[in-house]
Amino acid sequence: MNYRQKTPSPAAVARELGGRRIAVLGHPLQSTTMSEAKRKHLQAILVWLKGGPLPAAVEDVPDVCPVVLRDAASGVIVVSLINASTALASGFRLTLPAPHGRSRIRYCDDDGKMVTLPARCLSRERGRMVITVPPAAGIAPYDVRLFRIEPRR
Description:
Layout: E1 12-17, E2 20-25, H1 36-50, E3 57-59, E4 64-71, E5 76-83, E6 93-97, E7 103-108, E8 114-116, E9 122-125, E10 128-132, E11 144-151
Antiparallel strand pairs: 1-2, 3-6, 4-5, 5-11, 6-10, 7-8, 7-11, 9-10
């Protein structure tokens, strides 16, 4: 509630007791895909609940959801990016924990072929790997794009 005793937007309540954390959102979880501000708010809550960075985070576009699969034995990471909007999604940033050593990063194009991600689309910030999804790897509405990160041996 603000100083005028109005609730300008849905809120969250977060508490920590005895090393355990809980958060209750004041809005339906699915509404975070329709608002960049709600998405950022939810990501901040999840980071706080986890006590550290998320396995993957999408920035600059509210309707793309990452799903991460890791194979501990091989070190391969597969990230599925799901576009839940009615617009093409590209030019946004995907952040992940930075892999140890050199990695090969590819994505599955619209023809099902694995394409190497251009080096200009990759950077590191605060110990995390940042992939800027190029237009060629843009995700069509209601579609999925797979990224594969594998250690170079």
